[in-house]
Write a structure and sequence with these properties.
Radius of gyration: 21 Å
Number of domains: 1
Structural class: alpha+beta
CATH topology: Porin
Largest sheet: 8 strands, antiparallel, barrel
Number of helices: 3
Distance between the termini: 32 Å
Order of helices and strands: HHHEEEEEEEE
Strand content: over 45%
Shape: elongated
CATH architecture: Beta Barrel
Length: 207
């Protein structure tokens, strides 16, 4: 529940910050001086930089959980970490990992290619990404085995499953080194009933 409150809180903070950026133009001499000394928009997203993302996550299955063969839950909360390197202002690559509290704890790690577009004159940068990786400790299936006159349920586990993902979102930089990231991705797992969507929101630190 605490993770859920944190997730919602960061999302509300993003919306509030975006609204504050649309406020009235400074008119006093002090405000004008502060504006003159403020970072240029080019400083918020540099040509080469490292990003460290800490995020909360909410996942939901593409089919009702009774048909799902991996998460086996309609909804799951979790969190994770990602490291990205942008070798140009617009193109980068990254590694991420997260855990979801579904029917069991599900872990994921993946690599992605990232395209972002910092909007000129703003602190906002929409981005898209695509890649793939693996899931851990999921993919459970039950068989009924005839043992004498009784049918016994036997559960089989697949510890590692390949997956692909694609999605997009946006980041808002509070300072040139701290931002708020929000995105959505669709995750494709082996089998048509295993796919799920995930929403992430959290803090991004740029170096």
């Amino acid at each position: 529940m605490e993770l859920k409150k944190l997730f919602v809180g960061v999302l509300v903070l993003t919306i509030g910050f975006c609204g504050a950026q649309a406020g009235p133009v400074a008119t006093s001499s002090k405000q004008i001086q502060q504006t003159a000394n403020a970072p240029r928009w080019e400083d918020f997203y540099r040509d080469r930089e490292w990003n460290l993302d800490l995020f909360g996550a909410y996942a939901f299955t593409g089919t009702p959980y009774r048909n799902d063969r991996y998460l086996e839950a309609d909804h799951a909360w979790g969190g994770g970490i990602a490291g990205n390197y942008f070798f140009t202002r617009y193109l980068g690559a990254g590694l991420q990992g997260y855990a979801l509290d579904a029917d069991d704890i599900i872990g994921q790690t993946a690599g992605n290619l990232i395209f972002r577009y910092p909007i000129p004159g703003t602190r906002v940068a929409p981005y898209g990404f695509a890649g793939g990786g693996v899931l851990f400790n999921g993919s459970r299936a039950e068989d009924l085995v005839d043992r004498g006159h009784n049918l016994v349920s036997v559960t089989r586990h697949s510890d590692v499953e390949g997956m692909g993902e694609f999605g997009g979102g946006f980041e808002v930089r509070i300072t040139p080194h701290i931002g708020i990231m929000n995105d959505f991705s669709w995750n494709v797992v082996n089998g048509e009933h295993n796919n799920y969507g995930i929403v992430r929101t959290g803090l991004s630190f740029a170096f």
